[in-house]
Design a protein that fits this description.
Elements: H1 10-23, E1 28-29, H2 30-37, H3 41-53, E2 57-59, E3 64-67, H4 70-80, H5 83-99, E4 102-109, E5 112-119, E6 134-136, H6 141-147, H7 152-158, H8 174-187, E7 190-193, E8 200-208, E9 214-223, H9 229-255
Antiparallel strand pairs: 1-3, 2-3, 4-5, 4-9, 5-6, 7-8, 8-9
Length: 256
């Protein structure tokens, strides 16, 4: 667990927690949100009033709260500054066309991964996702592709002793997950078989920078019906590897 710095502002931290809590809801009432966050009503009311005055939260006539687009605008500006996204996008487009499957580029963010870019396939039967989508590290192929190559100390900090179950297929035993991560390191790619969402599978490979450090993960996300072992082994993974290697070459070239 991270140690809180002595100069941390508790009120600001609570305000940011409110933003994260609201991001999981279409809208929320004061009492329900206070219960969910473990805050008193008056404290939460002051935080929401401040966030509303600053343009981050909107209060409806029914006294319910929702996020405004201001948080999205800030996130969109941050994403635009990520050079990796721009360098990877053409390769992602080619990969999506080659495989006719949806392609994602994800990075580590806190204790999860966040999709920073995606390219949809033309296939009408595809997985519904979006840029900004957050997924659990232990339940996603991209999360495992990144986790497997982290320093041991970082891995220990990110993985709690009890892992949250998302589906019947989620790996919740920490030792079992560590064994799978060792296999990912040996094979160089990771998979997710309905471990986060039923009916959804994915294969992912790490993306490295010029120093060889894993900075992201590239994945192909498909309905379970199209995730046969031979397809994954002979088609999806080789194509992912070629694309990831091309992205690394692009990152290296642009960094020179």
């Amino acid at each position: 667990m991270s140690i809180k710095p002595a100069y941390m502002t508790a009120t600001l931290a609570k305000g940011l927690d409110v933003l994260e809590a609201l991001s999981d809801e279409e809208e929320a009432g004061l009492s329900d949100l206070a219960r969910k966050m473990g805050l008193s009503g008056p404290t939460l009311f002051r935080l929401l009033a401040t966030l509303a005055a600053c343009g981050y939260v909107q209060k409806s006539a029914a006294n319910r709260y929702r996020l405004t687009l201001k948080t999205w605008e800030i996130g969109a500006r941050a994403v635009r500054r990520i050079g990796l996204r721009e360098q990877a996008h053409p390769h992602m487009e080619r990969l999506a066309t080659e495989l006719d499957e949806t392609v994602h580029l994800s990075v580590l963010q806190g204790d999860g991964i966040v999709v920073i870019d995606k390219v949809d396939c033309a296939n009408p039967v595809r997985v519904d996702t979006f840029v900004g989508l957050r997924a659990p590290l232990h339940g996603s192929a991209t999360g495992k592709a990144i986790l497997a190559f982290l320093p041991e100390a970082t891995l220990d900090e990110l993985l709690p002793s009890r892992l949250l179950r998302h589906t019947d297929a989620t790996i919740i035993d920490r030792a079992a997950l560590l064994r799978e991560l060792a296999q990912v390191r040996r094979a160089g790619w990771a998979r997710n078989r309905e471990e986060w969402r039923p009916g959804v599978c994915a294969a992912a490979v790490p993306v490295r920078d010029a120093t060889g450090t894993v900075v992201a993960a590239l994945s192909v996300t498909v309905p379970s019906s199209r995730f046969a072992n031979d397809v994954v082994r002979d088609r999806l993974v080789p194509a992912l590897r070629r694309a990831a290697e091309a992205i690394t070459r692009e990152v290296t070239r642009k960094g020179q």
